[in-house]
Amino acid sequence: MKFQIEEVTVYFPYDNIYPEQYTYMVELKRALDAKGHCLLEMPTGTGKTIALLSLITSYALAKTESPIKLIYCTRTVHEMEKTLAELKFLHNYQVKHLGAAAKMLAIGLSSRKNLCVNPKVSSAENRDSVDAACRKLTASWVRSMAAENPNQPTCEFYENYDRAAGGAVLPAGVYTLEDLRAFGKEKGWCPYFLARHMVQFANVVVYSYQYLLDPKVAGIISKEMQKESVVVFDEAHNIDNVCIEALSVSVRRQTLEGAIRNISRIENEIDRFKDIDAGRLRAEYNRLVEGLALRGDLSASDAWLANPALPDDILRQAVPGNIRRAEHFLHVLRRLVQYLKVKLDTDKVEKESPVSFVASINSDAGIDQKALKFCYDRLHSLLMTLEITDTDEFLHIQTICDFATLVGTYARGFSIIIEPFDERMPLIPDPVLQVSSLSLSLSLSLSLSLSLSPLCMLCLCCHDASLAIKPVFDRFQSVVITSGTLSPIDLYPRLLNFHPVVSRSFKMSLTRDCICPMVLTRGSDQLPVSTKFDMRSDPGVVRNYGKLLVEMVSIVPDGIVCFFVSYSYMDGIINSWNESGILKDIMQHKLVFIETQDVVETTLALDNYRRACDCGRGAVFFSVARGKVAEGIDFDRHYGRLVIMFGVPFQYTESKILRARLEYLRDTFQIKEGDFLTFDALIDVMNIELTDRNLNQRQAAQCVGRVIRSKADYGMMIFADKRYSRHDKRSKLPGWILSHLRDANLNLSTDMALHIAREFLRKMAQPYEKTGSTTGRKTLLSQEDVEKLGNNGAQEMLY
Question: Family per UniProt (predicted)?
């Protein structure tokens, strides 16, 4: 359909539109008109992606005098491909109505691993290996040698692309990653470097969060993006966690040992160059004296990673004299690595500020702050001078230089934490040095604190999410942060330190109550259930959780997804159920599949789970609230008729990194510890259906949000923990769930929940009118309905 929102003609590729999609577009247009940033929450399954794409591309078509670029950021490659598929469908509709005037160039950009068409390179086992294999064939010095020696291997696809020069362009259209690979094979051009080249000319670019938020990647990929761009962060409920990871570094003892090997290899390379080409080292020294850390003529194939510090914090000065000579720089690195080894040789937890840590390095190792700041740039320059191609072999020393640059650059928002063991297993040594950025998200802190690996680790963790995203807010015209679970929405501006011009949360319009949330607080024996530390191992709690699942598998058709608060708790409860015979009772009704920390095993389990649901056998999938399944896998339709959240997925609150971050949020942003923990726990539980106070709510919302993926779908969600009955916990859940959570569904026992589930399933089996025209709750708008809304104002929504 085609309709007007004020002066903008919106091209929407479907015959009908949801009321919330229309109001979503209206609010989005307000933000674009104001050239400001916005926060928009709309339940998953309501067509958020196509609403975004339709409005922004139509807005660009209507504002030809001031064209805008759309930069659409996704979390995963799968989400990127889905977005590009939607955009291709929309683009075809626009071309049908406007012809050549609607032509656009839209591309997806991913790593070499996902775009390379050279079988010798793409067959490498991981991303770093693919990058290094590519560099060995495309680096400028390798190609120079090939010009003199025909036996020197190069990449034919890159050579063809380079020979085409200005003729290597993409015709107008929408290109998925597969489309780029196919086009590259057809032309004989490298699709990765072609896509990177075309990014600056494209109307729409779809890529990962890291391409904007991680300074090391953004400095290479996104530095040419124009200010007149609209940036969309989709599924951005965990964007603060991504920001933390972007400015955080982890180093184990193995990393320090690897760094020593890297330094020794670099020394050997320096000695070799002194014998065959000493002039190259002198030229580098002279360049550093002049204040040029890198040559200005680097080709795209030579560029490695940018400085890990944010653009405004990078020193525009000459490299300090004490690290200009390659030999002197390596001596500094050796002293730094030795200092870190000594710091890790401890049996007690230590915490320092960056200022005191840098002062300690200066006094004990003789390395001043300015030398630390320049470590990364100096290493990059040296590796380029030595013509190193196997960059994957130098990740250890790169990590050390990342750490040095960040700790030398930032005085606030970071802390240095040394943990010699995991606090939950104090007899197992696990030295961890952690530099925590106090403004970044808690997510990284959690993942580090939950690591049970006995390997020693050094971590630089950021606590202030606003640090990494500030350059994005400052640089681009409009930034849209959107997701199905942003509640409480007023917390994000404080976490990210920005002022949105529009901040709205939308409800889902439904013709029937197809969502049935329940809060179960006790078993059939009336004993309370909870995963509180003092209750989680209680045999009565374990038994009641098992009986709940046994009862539900006997009446719920198709798939059931169960989320636990941690891997260790899931393992323990499954073992108890197996010993007591509960697991056998469950498997009499449905097959059981379990998520593990191994990606291959989990992928296989998910595939077999879907096959069991498809054939009518039905299945139960056991997962973890903060695991991979909770974040990115949809259990729509018959794959997920019920989600059970066993407990409240609070973070491990004794983690020193988490405690440091909570203190920073309290002191800097006046965010109470309890509010933040609850927010995080509950939001992630929600996303399983639709897509520990505050932190816990985020995790809970993520989980339950994976079941309802469209309005034609239906599903139940059970919050099995007595703490969910408390209003202060429950109120942090997204509004679209709270609107369906009736008082009668609170404080339930197992038999009461069973009765409600039976009634709900019986109701869902009845035919219904999908548009809502007969019920007075119109949920599907026609062209005529939209025109009326345009005339009467968007507030006249028929929910």
Answer: Belongs to the helicase family. RAD3/XPD subfamily.
